[in-house]
Every structure is written in structure tokens, then in C-alpha cells.
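C-alpha cells for GDSL-motif lipase/hydrolase 6. Go.
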Amino acid sequence: MERRVASCVFFLLVSISVTPAFAHNVQAVFIFGDSLFDAGNNHYNNNCSAQADFPPYGSTYFHHPTGRFTNGRTVADFISQFLGIGIQKPFLEAQQEVINGSRTEYPSNGINFASAGSGLYRATNSDLGVTPIQDQLQQFQTLMDQNLVDRKLLEKSLFFFESGSNDVFNYFLPFDPPTLTPDAYVQTMLTEVEHFVDQIYKLGARRIALFSLGPVGCVPARTLIPGAPVNRCFGKMNRMAKNYNKGVENIAKNIPKKYPGSVGVFGSVYSIFQLYHTTPSSHGMSNVTDACCGDGTLRGMLQCGQEGYKICDNPNEYLFWDYFHPSEHTYKLMSKSLWAGNKYVHPINLKALANLTIT
């Protein structure tokens, strides 16, 4: 995971200098992905049925549902707060406000385009009305084409990307058996990641953070897949996730070589999850297998908030909030590792990325 870091750092030093750690050179974050990042876009999409805009979602931090698929904040939210720039609005909310005149321009601290349930394949959960990564990119490009985002702001922005969990999970659903082998399926996903990075760079992105998938095969919702084990993680699914993650890591490593003046960072979410899974008590967790909120086996057979759901007494002791998603406590720990750690984020952490002066 850590090989050739020195060569990456060399490429960074060619075009970048470091400023004092307290002087963040980032004013905005632009976020693309799925439910791990979605801050409520699906809520503002009337055609979308993948929703978390009902109790008890949001209950721990916001004290009301926000459309986030957890009980509080996500990694993107925490990092923005670490930066001191405030949490990004969902694109569709900001667009609605601009159209109805309640705000005159798009937010200057960035925009969240992520859509829960989406993937790198356009077909992934398309029946739910989600916004695939290609359309999220198009939404951003349209804002740029219409000069609704200041191009100078992009030089002082972080770009976050995470996608693919829904693609991998859906590969194993029995309703529509895949025609591609696991390797070919993952390679098609990686082609889309490369295209995303290429396009986002052309639009002005220079600080690009790519995040790996977590161990998708460990989510409580695996109980919905016929033949998936309950007493352990689903190995076939995790192998696909790890294969994809290796490809994303290579893409991130090549960003400064392929795109002059840019920086690529890789966040190994998978490794962070493994740490919590193997040493839960060291991280304040007592349960790393079941969802805090849901019902059925592992509380993974019913979405949190749906009729008949049950909820744990202390979400902070659970790795998972609902059948797919981490608790806010998990997100907070993860954010700290990605922000200031050096073991699970390469070649530099997000704090160092925010402190770089790109020339």
C-alpha cells in the first residue's frame, strides 16, 4: 500500500510548496459520490426513492433528518469543519434556492453533488432515480460553463470522490445476474474513475482526494443476498472491493505525473474499517457487526426508520448506524485519520493537502 511513496512526493515537490500548518489554503470542498457523502441531494430530487429524510436519521447531531444516511455528520462534513469553512449544501438544494431567489449565488464554500444509491455504472440503482457519477460531474460542468462558480476558487478547493460500493453490492444481487466477470466489472468501474479525474482536472481541480471502498462485504445488508454468510464478512464481495481499491490507489498515485500542477491523495477507508473491526474496544465500539438501527438478522434486513425498525441505546458504540452505513462516531474517527494521520492516507494527509500552495 505504501510502496513508491517517495517517488510521488518527488513529483509533488516539483510544483508545490508547503505553508505553515495553521494557514489552510482551502476555501471550498466539492464532493462527488454516493450515500457515504450525500448531504441531502436525494431529498431534493422528487424522482428519487432512495431516501433518508425521516427519523431517526440525523438524530445525534442535527437532531432532525437531513437526507444523510447516518445519525449525524459524514466524513465530508467533518473535514469541512476541520477546515473551518462550514458544511457544504447539496447541489439540488442550492440550485432550488438560486432559482426561487432566496439566494443570489451558489455557496462559496463548495457544493455537495453526491447521491445516495448511485454508482459508477449508470444502471446501478437507476430504477430508484439516483444521480450517477457521470451526471454529478455534468452538474458541476454546467455550473462552470455558466460561470456560476468562480474559477479562481477551484485553485483553493479540495475535490472529494468516492463511489463504487453500490456497484459492487449490486453485482451479487440475484435479480439481474451480471454478464461480466468480477475483474472485467471492476475494470469498467476504474475506467469511469479515470474519466472522472481527467474531466475534473480539465475543469480546474488541482487537489483531488480519492477514497477507497470500505469492506462492502461486511455491511449488515449482506443478509439480503442469498447465500451470503451471516457469521462472517462476504469474502467474494470484499475481494472485488480490494481489487477496485488497488486500481483507485494507482490512479491517485499517477495524478501528479499525468496532470501538471495537481496533487492526488488516496484515502484507504478499507484499512481504517479493518482496524475498527479487529480492535473495536480501542475505538469505543462494542458492536462492529450489527446495525444500530433496523431489524432482522444483524438488523440488516430493514432500513432504519421503516415500519418495525428497532434502534440501539448508544449509536456511538456501533460501527454501523443502519444496514449499509457507518455511525457518526465511525465517521468522526475515520475523518481524524484522513485529516491528520499518516498510515491510511497517502502520500500526504488531507490537512497537508489543504496547506499546500499550488503554483
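The first helix runs from residue 5 to 15.
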